[in-house]
Design brief:
By secondary structure, the chain is an all-alpha fold. The chain has two domains: 108 residues, no CATH class; 36 residues. The chain contains eight helices and no strands. Helix 1 crosses helix 4 and helix 4 crosses helix 8. It is globular, with a radius of gyration of 19 Å. The two termini are 32 Å apart.
Length: 167
Amino acid sequence: MAGPPKQLTSQQMKFANLIVYGVEGNPITKTEAAKLAGYSDRGNWCSVAGSELTNPNKYPLVCAYISNLRDEVRHKYGISFEGHLEELGKIRDRGKKDNRNLAAAATTEIARGKVAGYYIDQKIVRHGKIDDLNLDQLYERMKTIKKKNEKVLEAKKLLAKESKETV
């Protein structure tokens, strides 16, 4: 078996750009991104393609490329997780002091966080708490997380190597 491809197609790159940047700055769904990237709209294929292209086990290069694009956005606009939390805290504090409506400022900062990839629209049903895990269980959970993201990390290294070779 040859394994996953070692290069992104132009269609995959277009999909990734649409996922990160949206259309005219407006976010779009994975299905819409797949459709606009040129994937077949027959049946439910755009929905399937959008989901599969963002699955690191099936398309690690696409996931790594999306991650790199989000890193570029964060760098370009000076968005960091710590700075984002700090700005949200400032907005909260100003709202408490002034009793003014700061909804627009909060909405803008949340939008910046979404662009940076800090918000993921998903629901997870959890049973138990991380605090309930003993040290061995915690280490096992960390190994599982690392293994789950291993393909994306390898793909990011491959993309970084390719970009250095083209420079």
